[in-house]
Design a protein that fits this description.
The structure holds two protein chains of two kinds. By secondary structure, chain A is of the alpha/beta class. Chain A has twelve helices and 17 strands. Classes of the chains: A alpha/beta, B mainly alpha. Chain B: Keywords: Cell membrane, Membrane, Transmembrane, Transmembrane helix.
Chain lengths: 448, 386
């Protein structure tokens, strides 16, 4: 069959030819002259990309992260009261932007989906010319964006991501994480759980079905089994399920006396609320009071779950009630700006932005490889978690971890958690290549 | 018909050719004109081409036969997973990935279509929706070893990549990137690859619409009962249309994986299926160009409008006095950033109410307006009902 049997005139052929030539010539308009590294800022400004979930199960955390980033930009540019810059042990930042360039930012919605997050990060890199992408409130997203940044050749400063894999098997040379991880949660929580619930317990896990849930389930199960606890059952639930009743009903008949909720954000609010409504906490199993543990806690979630968090143990990276100078300075300037205390998500994102700016200032460049070297092995203080080390082997921060408990008599809607213990850094430090974490950074990538 | 090469719907082959050439030119020059509206960067251009292709394929089913499938994202997902597995097992060349993705999608479409097409109307839609949700849940949890669940399937340096192993070029250190015989499929080369596939896909869709087979499909849309009474067995035709459109979706999925080697279950979610329906209706169901335009509009909103924040708005309104500026930002802020869905909803509503034929109807009305003022009566209707 002939495709076009008639009517290809010379004129239309020529028209088409001209158009095609123009099309094929198009790429040449975009051939960039060779820069030292990708998106090297040439004007008086430098652009950072804040990629946070604005919709979906982690939207609350995302909104708070964005507030923190905006505050950090203010402080780096020398506006406002300076926040943690006053308490930060490194004094490289002078309040005139980074390396004399005023900081600007672009934002994007990750939708808590890897696809959308990568599309958003790509837009930032390709269109807006950012030198760094930061944010994320889901480890699946963080890992996806981290590997994108590695391939593209810019720095990724992870936001709230708690999976072991982010700095474990999926670690990347261009990616850095300040937040703590599931393994550290387990190491910090285990002694407290032992002191409160004893050595003979049967645990039932409900786990968000993705990388973070899997590694947290593994880490917590390892830590509690080391105490002598038994793991009765591990059940995976889809992210953003909304209704957990079908998963909670079987817990009652399983013979377990502890329910461990490896959930976060709205999922945790829903599953915990439903577990309490189903009367789990009023039950006596095996002659013991039934207990619920939420390994990764946050104030935003406590606010969502309200009354139900009372007396429930968990761990967090940071809490606004801490009394050190860094935390106080941050809470003060965040409160003055927005009228309420920051969450741990806000804290880690704020700190990551400052750490990036500081590293660029010390390295004297935004080039990912040089900047990365300035972060590797960097020891600092005054950022709310005591002395902290950015370990060179896996780009994970090592610092104190907080074990917290839902307060019995909260004095305000923000005062919901009490700090039970500040677990020292040594107790949560591990070797970079233990089996749960074995991975390879690869070599750093400057892009271009 | 030899003397006057016009098809049954009055479009000449010559105007088809001009239309195709213009379309190709517009697609290939996209990096130039798209930068005028802030869309001139590779990732969005790739998405335009890929989702345009997806919508063209969907339109072959929905626009021609009138069967509304609410589960087309399943084929998109299947295509992506197949492509990534092809990268992992065979090698990083995109051609085998595209080939196998289309084959697998066709097999899935055959199975799902064979069952779903026993019903029509709303029952067909619900059946396809159910199958897509099943695929999504399978990919999300049951088939985790194949799909890696919510985390998504990615390529690793340690993957076997047999073809590269045989050629002795397998690099087990750095993360592999997709390529077309050495040409990396990221950035603009990736876009041009997708663009060429889009143009081919557009051409094939055009030929289908103009063929006797296409006429048969349109007849099914206008009155299937009458077709049956006259002795036609319509099912093979609808099934063929379903498979073809499934293959288009699989191809789009493979291209998604080619430009970014990652496949996640969310690609199969019902929202993704709904999105292609929106694209087609927004652009104009049943037209050739409409679905591509609809896809471009939706992806533009998703990527550009969602990125506006208060800082950007403040700059946009800085010509207003300060109090008015803040009020304007507060109001506009509802419709951009995380509120981009709202804007899209409003646009969709306006189009469905005032232009039931989608953007293409708008274009036709404008054309008519010009023609009336010219007093001319040309019959260049290549862009009309395909």
């Amino acid at each position: 069959m002939t495709v076009f049997d008639k009517g290809v005139s010379r004129r239309s052929l020529m028209k088409g030819g001209v158009a095609l030539t123009a099309g094929l010539a198009a790429p040449h308009f975009f051939t960039k002259s060779a820069y030292a590294y990708l998106n090297e800022p040439t004007g008086g400004t430098v652009t950072l990309g804040f990629n946070v979930p604005q919709t979906g199960a982690y939207a609350d955390e995302g909104a708070d992260e964005l507030r923190a980033y905006q505050l950090a930009v203010k402080h780096i540019n020398g506006e406002g009261d300076g926040g943690m810059l006053n308490t930060f042990s490194s004094k490289a930042l002078k309040g005139n932007g980074i390396l004399g360039k005023k900081v600007e930012y672009v934002t994007g919605d990750t939708q808590t989906k890897s696809d959308a997050a990568r599309a958003s990060a790509k837009r930032m890199i390709e269109k807006d010319g950012v030198v760094m992408v930061t944010g994320g409130s889901s480890s699946g997203v963080a890992i996806a964006v981290q590997s994108l940044c590695q391939e593209a050749g810019i720095i990724f400063m992870a936001g709230l991501t708690h999976s072991n894999d982010t700095t474990g098997k999926d670690r990347r040379a261009n990616g850095f994480r300040h937040f703590f991880n599931a393994y550290q949660s387990g190491a910090a929580l285990a002694p407290v759980l032992e002191a409160n619930y004893g050595k003979d317990r049967k645990a039932y896990h409900l786990t968000a079905d993705y990388t973070w849930g899997w590694t947290q389930e593994e880490s917590i199960a390892d830590a509690t089994e080391a105490l002598g606890w038994q793991t009765v059952e591990k059940v995976r639930t889809p992210l953003g399920a909304g209704d957990f009743s079908q998963y909670i009903t079987p817990v009652l008949n399983s013979g377990a006396d502890v329910l461990i909720l490896n959930h976060y954000g709205k999922d945790m609010v829903n599953s915990l609320t439903q577990a309490v409504q189903f009367g789990l906490r009023d039950k006596q199993v095996n002659g013991k009071d039934f207990a619920i543990v939420v390994p990764l806690y946050s104030r935003l979630m406590a606010q969502g779950a309200g009354e139900n968090v009372k007396g429930i143990f968990g761990s967090t990276n940071w809490h606004w009630s801490l009394s050190d100078a860094g935390s106080q300075a941050f809470v003060k300037s965040f409160g003055a700006e927005y009228g309420f205390p920051p969450s741990q998500a806000a804290h880690t994102c704020y700190v990551q932005a400052l750490l990036y700016a500081d590293a660029a200032e010390r390295a004297g460049t935004f080039a990912p490889c040089e900047l990365g070297k300035a972060l590797e092995g960097f020891e600092f203080d005054g950022m709310g978690n005591g002395p902290t080390l950015y370990r060179a082997e896996d780009h994970q921060c090592f610092k104190k971890v907080l074990v917290v408990k839902g307060k019995d008599n909260p004095s305000s809607q923000f005062d919901l958690l009490e700090v039970v213990q500040e677990v020292p850094r040594e107790q949560v430090t591990y070797d970079a290549n233990i089996p749960q974490f074995a991975g390879s950074l690869g070599s750093c990538n400057n892009g271009a | 018909m030899a003397a006057a090469p016009t098809s049954a719907f009055g479009t000449s082959r010559r105007s088809d050719l001009i239309f195709l050439v213009l379309f190709a030119a517009a697609v290939l020059t996209a990096p130039l004109w798209a930068s005028l509206i802030g869309a001139g960067y590779p990732d969005l251009l790739q998405k335009w081409a890929i989702y345009g292709l997806f919508a063209i394929g969907f339109n072959i089913l929905f626009g021609l036969t009138g069967y509304l499938s609410f589960g087309h994202a399943a084929f998109l997902g299947v295509g992506s997973y197949t492509a990534v597995w092809s990268f992992k097992l065979l090698g990083m060349n995109v051609l085998p990935a595209v080939f196998f993705a289309m084959i697998t999608a066709a097999v899935f479409a055959l199975a799902i279509g064979y069952i779903s097409l026993r019903r029509s109307g709303i029952y067909f839609s619900i059946l396809t929706l159910a199958f897509a949700q099943m695929s999504y849940n399978l990919a999300y949890s049951v088939l985790t070893p194949i799909t890696n669940g919510e985390t998504g399937l990615t390529v690793l340096p340690s993957d076997p990549r047999i073809l590269e192993q045989l050629a002795g070029v397998r690099d087990t250190v750095s993360t592999p990137t997709t390529s077309l015989f050495g040409l990396e499929m990221t950035g603009y080369p990736g876009f041009y690859f997708c663009a060429v596939v889009l143009i081919i896909g557009f051409f094939v869709a055009m030929k289908i619409a103009r063929s006797p087979f296409g006429t048969m499909l349109k007849a099914i849309k206008s009155n299937q009962t009458r077709m049956n009474y006259t002795g036609f067995n319509t099912r093979p035709y609808t099934l063929a249309a379903f498979i073809i459109s499934g293959m288009y979706a699989g191809l789009a999925g493979a291209l998604l994986a080619s430009t970014d080697p990652l496949a996640g279950a969310e690609r199969m979610q019902w929202t993704a299926s709904g999105e292609v329906v929106l694209m087609t209706i927004l652009g104009g169901a049943g037209t050739l160009l409409g679905p591509v335009l609809g896809a471009a509009v939706i992806k533009y909103f998703e990527n550009i409008f969602s990125a506006f924040n208060d800082q950007v708005l403040m700059e946009m309104f800085n010509w207003l006095p300060e109090t008015l500026q803040e009020a304007a930002v507060a109001v506009a802020g509802l419709f951009v950033g995380e509120g981009w869905h709202l804007t899209l909803g409003v646009v969709f509503m306006l189009i469905v109410i005032f232009l039931p034929g989608g953007i293409m109807e708008g274009i036709r009305r404008v054309q008519k307006l010009f023609r009336r003022s010219d007093g001319a009566s040309r019959t260049d209707t290549a862009s009309e009902s395909a």
